[in-house]
Amino acid sequence: MANIIVAQNLTLSYERDEEIIQNASFVIEKGDFVFITGPSGSGKSTLLKSFYGNIKPQSGTLLMGGLNMSTIKKPKLQELRKHLGIIFQDYKLINEWNVERNVVLPLWIAGYSSEVQKTQAKRLLHHVKLSGKEHKYPLELSGGEQQRVGVARALSKNPFLILADEPTGNLDEYSSNVIWDLLENACQQLETTVVVVTHKIPSVFNIPYRHFTIDELGGIYEVH
Amino acid sequence: MRFIKSHISLIFPMVAILMGLEFFIAFDRTTKGYEESLKDSYAMLVVAKDEMSIDDFRAWDKHIYKVAEIEKSKIIDKVDLPFKSSNTLNIDKDMPNFYSIKLNKYLNNRELEEVKRNILKSDRVTRVETFDTLHNSNYGLFSSIKLAFQTFILFMTIIGFFLIIKQMEVWNFMHSERMKVMDIFGASLFLRSKALIIMAIIDAIISAIIASIVFYTIQNSWVKGNHIAILEDNISGLFSIDDLITLTFASIVIVLIAVFLVVINVKEE
């Protein structure tokens, strides 16, 4: 199995702040479905941000797809991000763009033709059960529907890794289950590695997963 | 409505700045012509004991570019003397030499006095007449008009720049979220700011066209109808098609700097 994320004695902190993650060491492999849990303020989101280069390691090593995140330059980071699918609790959709444009954002950034973008948008929106809503704007959709757009966007370029920060944090139970199903499918059918930061692991989860937890001191442990 | 408002809020200050720039270019061009005519109609009078050449004068002051000797006979003709006919030859011999001096540019009072002092340094020169009263009144009027225009242009430009800074804040508010999301998904700086760049360039071109139309209208209706001496003689110099290119270029440079400042200030959360 290929290593997707490798952390060795990883320490993360914001400038002038105290260390949030301390000496974390773990390996996440291709096809893993990983939950990262922990109390509020423990650094779950900070850890996820370090995976897409929003925050650089203070010390230790973090390798993402073989790239060292401590020394990575902006062009290489942009290239890495093009191959990631990222899902946010607050969706981070572009409100002045319609659903179709939001979904194909990663394809547009990668320079795919408009025909490919259109075909892919149709397929993905069907996959997330939003067919017919291509021309709606995010603010015309419910929270659950917006998050499904977020998931479709994350899947649009067949990423090798999906990072999800509290993807169901703002959703009701029904919408949450739809999102978990979509992520399970991505992991199982496409062999995409999925890392989800969450407060609570869903009670019903149909595929094997790994569970990391962060304690109050910033240490990371694998539960099972 | 929001779309129109967002465009007008950039076009308005850009037009103000471009009008200021075009005022500066046009005024400089038209007043140069007027300055030239003032210079051509102005001459100093120098009285010298000996005959002098243009090189003598040029050696004294660099502003002197043309020297014409005034024929003594013409001066004697203008002087009404009872003994004139019998003694013309003797008077001619004893008379000093008179020279009319043209300068290479229209000088201010201080510079004019300096030219006078430089010429008087020579023992051969007995008198220099600068006709400074006439010169001063022409120069004073001209300078005050020029200063008033330049002050107006300066204030217009400052206000324009303040409005652009305001617009940059609006752009930051409107576009930063989109740019941040695009950054997360790996978009390059150009791709992130493409929409803003295109919008800003379109607005810059529209602003340049509006400013040009205003000046074209001023040239063809207002100045022609109002008989303003300084401008009327040089009306063709008020606005030229080359100015449209200059204004478009200046306008695009200003908006691109503004866009660049907005884009580099968008930081990831």
Tally of contiguous helical segments of chain B? 9
Largest sheet features of chain A: 6 strands, mixed
Structural Rg of chain A: 17 Å
pLDDT < 50 stretches of chain B: none
What's the main sheet of chain B like?
4 strands, antiparallel
Total count of helical runs of at least 4 residues of chain A: 7
Poorly predicted sequence stretches spanning 5 or more consecutive residues of chain A: none
The span between the termini of chain A is: 19 Å
How is the quaternary structure best described?
heterodimer
Strand content of chain A: 15-25%
Largest sheet: spatial strand order of chain A: 6-7-8-3-9-10
Q: Which strand order do you get reading across the main beta sheet of chain B?
A: 2-3-1-4
Mean pLDDT level of chain A: 91
Q: What class would the helix/strand composition of chain A place it in?
A: alpha/beta
Indicate the radius of gyration of chain B in whole angstroms.
30 Å
Order of helices and strands of chain A: EEEHEEHEHHHHEHEEE
Largest inter-chain interface? A-B, 19 and 13 residues
Tell how many strands the DSSP assignment of chain A holds: 10
Task: Report the end-to-end length of chain B measured between terminal Cα atoms.
Answer: 31 Å
Shape of chain B: elongated
The total beta strand count of chain B reads 4
Report on the structure:
The complex is a heterodimer of chains A (224) and B (269). Chain A is α/β, with parallel strands linked by helices. Helix content of chain A is 32%, strand content 24%. Chain A contains seven helices and ten strands. Chain A has helices at residues 44-51, 74-81, 99-103, 105-110, 114-127, 143-155, 173-190; strands spanning 3-12, 21-29, 33-37, 59-64, 67-68, 84-87, 161-165, 193-197, 210-214, 220-222. In chain A, the strands form two sheets. In chain A, strands 6-7-8-3-9-10 form a six-stranded mixed sheet, sandwiched between helices. In chain A, α5 packs across α6 (143-155) and α6 (143-155) packs parallel to α7 (173-190). A four-stranded antiparallel sheet of chain B has the order 2-3-1-4. In chain B, α1 (2-41) packs across α9. In chain B, 26% of the residues are buried. Classes of the chains: A alpha/beta (224), B alpha+beta (269). The A-B interface holds A 52, 54, 77-82, 84, 86, 92-97, 105-106, 109 and B 177-178, 180-182, 184-188, 191, 268-269.
